[in-house]
Write a structure and sequence with these properties.
Its EC number is 1.1.1.27. By secondary structure, the chain is an alpha/beta fold. The chain folds into two domains: about 140 residues, Rossmann fold, CATH 3.40.50.720; about 170 residues, Alpha-Beta Complex (L-2-Hydroxyisocaproate Dehydrogenase, Chain A, domain 2). Helices cover about 40% and strands about 20% of the residues. It is built from nine helices and 16 strands. The strands form five sheets. It has a six-stranded parallel β-sheet, with helices on both faces. The chain has a three-stranded antiparallel β-sheet with strand order 7-10-11. A three-stranded antiparallel β-sheet has the order 12-15-16. Strand 5, helix 4 and strand 6 form a beta-alpha-beta unit. Helix 5 crosses helix 8. It is globular. The structure holds nicotinamide-adenine-dinucleotide. Nicotinamide-adenine-dinucleotide binds next to helix 1 and helix 3.
């Protein structure tokens, strides 16, 4: 197969359900790309979304949006994969694993056999396991197979903290790390608001019950997907913004620090597991992970999260 030169202005989205279509809509508005290909097992769905999203172009910037096949996406700078079943009410992300690994076994080899040279951004859940699956099935280097990881959970954490403290959530620096799911960890010990340690800032704003607040906020973040799914069957706006943010960091080679999911080698005793740690993200995907400082308890929780993911990955692959 002839190798195509990558087009930094081109993106592909595989899976045009709630998450894929909303992400495509966000990417159209972002101005980052001039060409976008949509793929779905349901061809009519991809065609319909391409038409509908294209009709917004006169309010954004010129670009070409169309439904296509795998031969159309090989020069895309980024392929976003959102194909797969979503969580049903009461179902955990890990419950989804068998179903979606099966779907990946039909998608990833199509990409691998065309010797894809761009960035594969995995969004389907359970995202850490599926990023690991995509890496194994594609044989692509670890830095170019990344998961949206806890970028969304971290946005939820910043939003909740911003509301709690009456401050712009962009001034809040805090991360959710580990699994995108039930064993995720709020890294409180490194959290700060514009350089001011979180507890000091809380006290400036009249909050003194630190343990209770942290427990409540972390639980809200952890449970928000379940709550949204119970109310409206799917979550898609927050993740679409997260996809747009990650794509922006890649195509603009921003070297932004984002908690994407990637292979961990040795950090805090975690070995050969895909999970989220803050990482420098640019044109080559993950440039390197950043070992933010964690206290003993957070380190213990991270190793536990890694163990859960490792066992799951071993069962499915
Ligand atoms: N990572 C995150 O933070 C995050 C957030 C929300 C949802 N998700 C996940 O995103 C995924 C999609 O969710 P959704 O709500 O859009 O689901 P959905 O059911 O609306 O859409 C899934 C789409 O994938 C398509 N599809 C299935 N098999 C395919 C294949 N082999 N090739 C191409 N397309 C295929 C389906 O036709 C469907 O259009 C789920 O796994 C969900 O859990 C992840």
């Amino acid at each position: 197969m002839k190798q195509l030169e990558l087009n930094n202005r081109k993106v592909a989205v595989i899976g045009c359900g709630f998450v894929g279509a909303t992400s495509a809509f966000g990417l159209m508005q972002s101005g980052l790309f001039s060409e976008m290909v949509l793929i779905d097992a349901n061809t009519e769905k991809a065609e319909g979304e391409a038409m509908d999203i294209s009709h917004g172009i006169p309010f954004a910037r010129p670009m070409k949006i169309y439904a296509g096949g795998y031969d159309d996406i090989m020069d895309a700078a980024i392929i976003v994969v959102t194909a797969g079943a979503n969580q049903k009410p009461g179902e955990t992300r890990l419950d989804l694993v068998q179903k979606n690994v099966g779907i990946f076994k039909s998608i990833i080899p199509e990409i691998a056999k065309r010797d894809y040279q761009g960035i594969l951004l995995i969004v389907s859940n359970p995202v850490d396991i599926l990023t690991y699956t995509a890496h194994k099935l594609s044989g692509m280097p670890e830095n170019r197979v990344i998961g949206s990881g806890t970028v969304l959970d971290t946005a939820r954490l910043k939003y909740e903290l911003g509301e709690h403290l009456g401050v712009d959530s962009r001034s809040v620096h805090a991360f959710i790390i580990g699994e995108h799911g039930d064993s995720e960890i709020a890294a409180w010990s490194s959290a700060n608001v514009s350089g001011i340690p979180l507890n000091t800032f809380c006290e400036m704003r009249g909050h003194f019950n630190h343990d209770d607040s942290m427990e409540r906020i972390a639980a809200n973040v952890r449970n928000s997907a379940y709550e949204i799914i119970a109310k409206k069957n799917a979550t898609y706006y927050g993740i679409a913004m997260s996809v747009k943010r990650i794509c922006e960091a890649i195509v603009r080679d921003e070297k932004s620090i984002l908690p994407v999911s990637g292979m961990i080698h040795g950090m805090y005793g975690v070995e050969d597991v895909v999970l989220s740690m803050p990482a420098i993200v640019g044109k080559n995907g993950i440039e390197r992970q950043v070992p933010i400082s964690l206290d003993e308890d957070e380190q213990k929780q991270l190793r536990k999260s890694a163990q859960i993911l490792k066992e799951m990955a071993e069962q499915v692959l």
